Amino acid sequence: MQKIIESNPKILIVDDDTDLLELLSIRLTAAGYKTELAQSAEIALNYLDVSRPQLVISDMQMSGMDGMKLFEHIHRTIPTLPVIILTAHGTIPDAVAATQRGVFGYLTKPFDSKILLAQVVQALRLVPGTALQKEESQAPWRKDIITQSAMMEDILTKAELVAKGDASVLIYGESGAGKELFAHAIHDASKRRDRPFVAVNCAAIPEQLLESELFGHVKGAFTGAVRDHKGLFQLAEGGTLLLDEIGDMPLPLQVKLLRVLQERQVRPVGSVQTIPVDVRIISATHRDLLTEISTGSFREDLYYRLKVVALTIPALSQRREDIPLLANHFLSVLCAKYDKEINGFSPDAMEMLVRASWPGNVRQLMNIVEQCVVLGTAPLISPVLIYDAMQKEEEGLVSFEDARRHFERDYLVRVLKITAGNVTKAAGLAKRNRTEFYKLLQRHQLDPSIFKQSQN
């Protein structure tokens, strides 16, 4: 028990009997624990919005919200937080039923101090990171995740728990929220930490190239395949493979990925031989995959293969308490990068950052701070610098249709270059019929003959 006492776990005690509340606090403080006291379940919920204890001890019968309703709320929103219920003899059957629903344990009043402390130790053994918050926040596996948000701490707790095994993880989150950062943290907290971490963006690679990128190919598999090529599954052997933006993976490739996950072996493009692979899969997406399944864009069987555990990274607008922390962290890093001496943000500038909508999340915040550091000439970053940087960010964000049109034209140009303007070959490479391919060329005002001339 010495190790647990030294780490000073924080325990939230909830009871409307102030005498019992004080008695519990004295006993637990004397045993080396830190305590927070709440005289009602409602006050306890307010406390949990701000900070996270490692354990909750609550009376069963209280005025207003009772201990069972408090537990149900905690179990629904913070399922990794253990709860011990205090109960009178008349409510023992209720307490027993509560343990079947997920309550860690119960104690009858009047309680024996030794039994109380023993049960507290048992509960805390299930909780990752029972060290002081400062020490826990410096754990190597999570060193790149800057946060003081209780919501983020809950997700980090789940991430540390899931890292202990090899279960597939599906990470949801908006663009720029930090999905890849969390995937890397899970890898670093796992037994695979000394093996490769490999990431691929499934939306950034054309369908006909993505299969080769994932599974590899053999010499002669297709035009341009002049040598054997190892795929990312092989490069990640023994480690972790992040399939970023998995919701954008084409359906034909989803079938092949499902087979790899089921059989734990890959077959390079053009090969008749299979290669066994030992890789932990983490997937990430900004899409609602259940909606994609309902529209036929994503396979349900693959979804359940990938989503053994799901984590949802909150948008920056949902954890505004992290904005000053992140902004100052980025300022420190970027001042060192650009050899600038800027001491911080003016109060008005920081208020602008905290109030902003942040559609681009943490990535957008870093871009804003970087622009301010590059252009800053004063000891403090001013509201004017913040405003100008935000205006440029908004101007630089094109519409979805414009982005799609740009990508489509760029893709067509690349295909025509590869085939030297041969429309038949280009249409085959793009897996489109000639008529449809010609319409695409006309839409983007592309003349195949120019690409033929460029080869002469």
UniProtKB/TrEMBL annotation:
Top-rank taxon: Bacteria
Q: Which organism is it from?
A: Candidatus Nitrotoga arctica
| PROSITE patterns per record | RESPONSE_REGULATORY, SIGMA54_INTERACT_1, SIGMA54_INTERACT_2, SIGMA54_INTERACT_3, SIGMA54_INTERACT_4
Location of 4-aspartylphosphate modifications = 59
Keywords from UniProt, A to Z, are: ATP-binding, DNA-binding, Nucleotide-binding, Phosphoprotein, Transcription, Transcription regulation
Name of the protein in its database record: DNA-binding transcriptional activator GlrR
- InterPro entries to which the protein is assigned, alphabetical: AAA+_ATPase, AAA_lid_NorR, CheY-like_superfamily, Homeodomain-like_sf, P-loop_NTPase, Sig_transdc_resp-reg_receiver, Sigma_54_int, Sigma_54_int_dom_ATP-bd_1
Q: Which PANTHER family match?
A: TRANSCRIPTIONAL REGULATORY PROTEIN, TRANSCRIPTIONAL REGULATORY PROTEIN GLRR
- Please state every residue range assigned to the domain named Response regulatory: 10-124
GO MF terms listed in the record are: DNA binding
Coiled-coil segments on the chain, per record: none
Domain named Sigma-54 factor interaction: which ranges?
145-374
Which CDD domains does the record cross-reference, listed alphabetically? Answer: AAA (cd00009)
